[in-house]
Design goal:
By secondary structure, the protein is mainly α. The protein has one domain. The protein contains 12 helices and no strands.
Length: 312
């Protein structure tokens, strides 16, 4: 009887995962392909503004689908991974708050060391963008503004972006991740959930968000790159969530990343390359994140092996 009950529990958990994913992808794809895409196609400032608002609201979809799934499957809201669990977890919260900024900065430094000709302290690329918008600034003014925004992003990004990032992270790290952990070890769990997270962004990637549309291999290379990016970030976010037993550190880290991710682009001569850097979406700009994710994977894999040895 006990074996039958365990099988039933596993089947129910699989159904909950499938319900959550079906709802999350359906809502995102329908809204983005049928509404956002059509608004952008109108090429109107007003319609683009509406499209941006709708796109921003997409971040609430995973959390909404968690609520619906829990109600529909009669799961309830116990073990919901939203208790912060601050006690004895300060180091993970400090990493969540400041780690993304440090890793973004290191990645940008590596990029500019490799591509020295790309660095422009006068911020000519950014000045040109502002000029096309009718804003005339001197390089010193813009530099001070961007540096101030970067500092503000480090200190306040997690707070300002908390609500929207909670919308995503309660779904990915607070609901999907714990259920996938019951089925897979850390590495396959990170790979699977990372690809899922990346494919969830597929409509926006096709529309040019993050990687644009003017590149060889469009849109498949962009979709692949987004999946890799989500695997890397998902590895880091999952690690701090597992260590604290809460998705809140992932919310903070996600908010921190969103607050400072594009800063280094302002110091390039031509905006850089979205697939390379200096922004963390690029393989060089995101190199510090990649190294961190590899270290985490090694650490978690060794930990799992030790637990298996102890159990045997």
């Amino acid at each position: 009887m006990e074996i039958i009950r365990m099988k039933d529990d596993k089947t129910l958990e699989t159904k909950r995962i499938l319900i959550f994913l079906a709802l999350t992808f359906l809502m995102a794809y329908v809204l983005e392909f049928s509404i956002v895409k059509n608004l952008v196609a109108l090429n109107s400032a007003k319609q683009n503004g509406i499209a941006q608002i709708i796109t921003g609201s997409m971040m609430f979809i995973p959390a909404l689908c968690v609520i619906v799934t829990r109600i529909v499957s009669k799961e309830g809201f116990h073990h919901n991974w939203i208790r912060p669990n601050f006690k004895r977890n300060l180091k993970y919260y400090l990493f969540a708050w400041f780690g993304p900024a440090i890793l973004t900065f290191l990645g940008a430094v590596i990029y500019f060391v490799i591509f020295k000709e790309q660095f422009d302290s006068n911020m000519g690329y950014a000045l040109n963008i502002f000029e096309t918008q009718g804003i005339n600034l001197k390089s010193a003014q813009l530099r001070n503004t961007i540096i101030s925004q970067f500092i503000t992003g480090i200190l306040l990004g997690p707070i300002l972006n908390f609500v929207t990032c909670f919308g995503e992270e309660w779904g990915w790290r607070g609901y999907l991740m714990p259920k996938m952990m019951e089925k897979f070890r850390f590495l396959p769990m990170v790979l699977i959930t990372g690809v899922i997270w990346g494919l969830w962004h597929l409509p926006l990637t096709i529309m040019g968000h993050n990687y644009g549309t003017d590149y060889a291999g469009y849109p498949y290379l962009g979709i692949f790159a987004m999946c890799i990016f989500c695997i890397v970030m998902g590895c880091i976010f999952s690690f701090i969530s597992i260590k604290t037993g809460s998705c809140i550190p992932a919310v903070i880290a996600h908010g921190s990343l969103n607050g400072i991710a594009s800063t280094a682009i302002y110091f390039t001569r031509d905006g850089g390359n979205n697939f390379i850097g200096p922004a963390p979406m690029g393989i060089i700009g995101g190199s510090a994140f990649i190294i961190t994710a590899i270290i985490i994977l090694i650490k978690m894999t060794q930990s799992e092996k030790c637990k298996i040895t102890e159990n045997n």
